[in-house]
Specification:
By secondary structure, the chain is mainly alpha-helical. The chain contains four helices and no strands.
Amino acid sequence: MKKIFMAVVIAGMLAVFSGNVFAGSVNAPGIRERIEEQQRRIDDGIASGELTRAEAARVQLKLDKIKDREARLSADGKLTPRERKRLHRMLDANNKKIFHKKHNPRKMD
């Protein structure tokens, strides 16, 4: 019984870790998820009218630059702690911009 239990636990751990490796999260933990979340917020803001087209274009341009930077930095297969910290700072700044753009009094006509 213990052997079966241990085999199930080990198989589960392998599934979790192999999923992380193939998802790319070993190289950039949290960064790709944050990029996807910001993209969703921009898209939702356009759909709901919280973001004007001009506001969305500005934060989308910044997000596209962050995506490009992440792709260049992880092209060698790894991110240094310094590179990861820089990307998180860029995402923090863009996150604040998205929030402020979505909560200002300007609305679509």
